[in-house]
Amino acid sequence: xxxxxxxxxxxxxxxxxxxxxxxxxxxxxxxxxxxxxxxxxxxxxxxxxxxxxxxxxxxxxxxxxxxxxxxxxxxxxxxxxxxxxxxxxxxxxxxxxxxxxxxxxxxxxxxxxxxxxxxxxxxxxxxxxxxxxxxxxxxxx
Length: 141
Description:
Layout: E1 4-8, H1 24-33, E2 37-38, E3 53-56, E4 69-73, E5 76-80, H2 84-96, E6 100-103, H3 111-132
Antiparallel strand pairs: 1-5, 1-6, 2-3, 3-4, 4-5
Helix pairs in contact: 2-3
């Protein structure tokens, strides 16, 4: 099980009992509006094409063997393990649908929050690369 983020639209966003009300027609229109999203079935897909899943073809860092996917289910659009690039696309989708982007724990994502996550991610990867060049503390030569 992975951490999920969701594009949701409710009449009352503070009422977590209320289901999201994005229609399947809105989902289909959204995917057709974004040229970098596709309905294509890829090798290894076992589900019949039912417009439940869409794939992102233009992720800046992920190759086609591990395409990000977005799922429509009961009025919500979601994905798992979203990196900052996916979060930005999901936020654009949410704005297009007059909806919000929320995480599994109810936190709301804004562009400011996504940019902060991206900066933290870059600084961690930069520090990891720097640390690879350092000798372990116990090596003296």
